[in-house]
Amino acid sequence: MPHPHTTLLHDIGPVDAVGIEERVAKYSTRSIKKTAKLWGLRTAVSMVDLTTLEGKDTRGKVAALCQKALRPSDDPAGPQVAAVCVYPAMVRHARRALGSDTAVRIASVATAFPAGQAPLKTRLAEVRAAVGDGADEIDMVINRGAFLAGDFGRVQEEISAVLAACGDATLKVILEVSELETFDNIRAASFLAMRVLRPGDFIKTSTGKTTLNATLGNNQVMLEAIRDFYLATGTAIAMKPAGGIRTAKQALHFLVAVKETLGDAWLNNARYRFGASALLNDLLRQIEKERTGSYQAPYYFSEAAESY
Fold first, then answer.
1. What does 257-308 look like in DSSP terms, one character per residue?
2. Cβ distance 165 to 128 under 8 Å?
């Protein structure tokens, strides 16, 4: 019998790695100026999942993060971020700090993040606890060992079990691209996840805890998988690159990739996010530059957590 990986790649098609790299190299050559640039910067702010994922997280640190999320800058007309992302134990503190009358969502990593090496019943209990405490979104990690062993059925069964535990909460499925190693594996894992997800759920590049996180290349592979899946099924899956995106310039390149691959329908925080807290202050500095013509010092904006 053919290996499951071979069968899946035959079904979905392999990745032209050279073509991917050539295409993403062109994104950095696009000229974005004035009104379009300001729109892109503000849109990127609205897509940020402001995150703290450290063992030293405290209620006070989470409360400060939530205040930053609600009002990232002194501009009362400025956009809020999409969500705050915390460990399950901090969800209730985030809910208390944000209140219920806000568009800022609470996301929580779960399923034994970042390694995922815990019994399934333990991972599911963690999801239910986070949702019960007020999480609007759950970021789960796939079983990379099962994937690399070709046990695709187990990968999908575990995603389905987490999805059931989420209830109405949005699910983001983290592939951990650095451990998948190849573009073909990233495309294959994307399809395995998308085949059991609901419209509006996400696939996500990384935990931010490994040496290689989001790049334009692996982001492009996943965007094209979303495009091909949408064209085949009509199901619109969302996307979240996470880790390593630290500058406004990088963020604009990622938004160019979204526009040119998926179109304007994905240029909003319901369908695209940045898991990159260190990015926020640079976006705010660039917005201020576009508005006033001068840069503010980095310390002009309150510090956000930079652990993602």
1. HHHHHT-GGGSSTTTB-BB-TTHHHHHHHHHHHHHHSSPPPGGGSPP-----
2. yes
Q: What angle do CA 40, 105, 32 make, to 5 degrees?
A: 5
pTM: 0.93
Verify cis geometry, omega within 30 degrees of 0, for the bond prior to 114: yes
The SS3 assignment for 49 reads strand
Amino acid 5: pLDDT: 72
Measure the CA–CA gap between 43 and 48, rounded to whole angstroms. Answer: 9
Handedness of CA 192, 195, 200, 201 (dihedral sign): negative
How many residues would you count in the chain?
308
Cα(272)–Cα(198) distance, integer angstroms: 15
pLDDT in tens, 20-77: 999 999 999 998 888 999 999 999 999 999 999 999 999 999 999 999 999 999 888 8
| Domains of the chain: residue spans and CATH | 4-300 (3.20.20.70)
Q: Which residues are catalytic?
A: 139, 204, 240
Which residue type is seen at 217? G
